[in-house]
Please model this.
Amino acid sequence: MSTLLDIQDLRLSFKGLRGITDVLHGISLSIAAGERVALVGESGSGKSVIARIVLGLLQETRSARVSGKVGFDGAEINTMRPRDRAKLRGTEMSMIFQDPTSSLNPTFTIGNQFAEVMRRRDPKLSRAACDARAIEMLTEVSIPNPDRILENYPFQLSGGMNQRVMIAMALVNHPKLLLADEPGTALDVSVQAQTLRLMHDLVEKHGTAVLFISHNLGVVREFADRVYVIYRGNIVEEGPTASVFHNPGHAYTRALMDAVPRITGAGLPEVPEVSDAFLAPMVRHDRGAA
Ligand SMILES: Nc1ncnc2c1ncn2[C@@H]1O[C@H](COP(=O)(O)OP(=O)(O)OP(=O)(O)O)[C@@H](O)[C@H]1O
Model:
């Protein structure tokens, strides 16, 4: 399979009042076309900033310094002109966030928001064509009465429905890459599970590659073909999901796994105190391993 996303030696630091803070220390990560890859690690380890760099957002943040290579579908995101990066967002790559109600615009109907997204790819698309395509997508995410939903505002829908709308909207332009940052964690556990199953089936059907960001190892195991484990801005382990789960090689991965039974509905996994073992070299599993 061809490589879609190829991140090499990615470094990030922020300049603030108290000097420079290094956040990413030379990350390398790749995703093949159609592959589902998870990035797991505790809060603050650098997962979301990687997604924001892939989307080309942090490159445009004054306090951020980004270096390294972010190859996407033959182009180089880091050195691209800002307006070329902007053109990729919502078309070739799209993003799903934790909390759908804060990501959807509360002042526009769902139909208007779909039309805006679709016209990023094709500005001449008629409203009737946008609505027809939106209805198709909403049907794919099992939303009942999709034609009526187009006239609704996000606040008129439940959190679970809004999350489905977000998924439908993220996929409506057939992006090559979907960045999913803790999708559904703002929802209750059973709705989250349903939503993830739906997302899994849809990306499989459309052949969309996914970078799935999570600190929930149980969810990652269900969803991803391959896993990267990140600890304090370093990738410490990488491999096929089954292999990493059956045979975790890095002390930090083992600590994350040991922490799983202590996950509560509300909380993050509790990872033990930092130990020198967590600074051990990266563990890379064979692609053929399981
Ligand atoms: N704009 C910013 N300015 C300064 N520091 C930032 C900025 N954005 C992120 N950081 C810092 O970068 C580090 C990584 O943040 P990031 O949001 O990627 O963590 P995360 O692994 O996604 O955590 P979570 O699971 O809680 O979302 C954190 O220490 C965070 O405080």
Observations:
- Residues 14, 23, 41, 43-49, 63, 215 surround adenosine-5'-triphosphate (CB under 6 Å).
- The chain has a mean pLDDT of 89.
- Residues 74 and 208 are 17 Å apart (CA to CA).
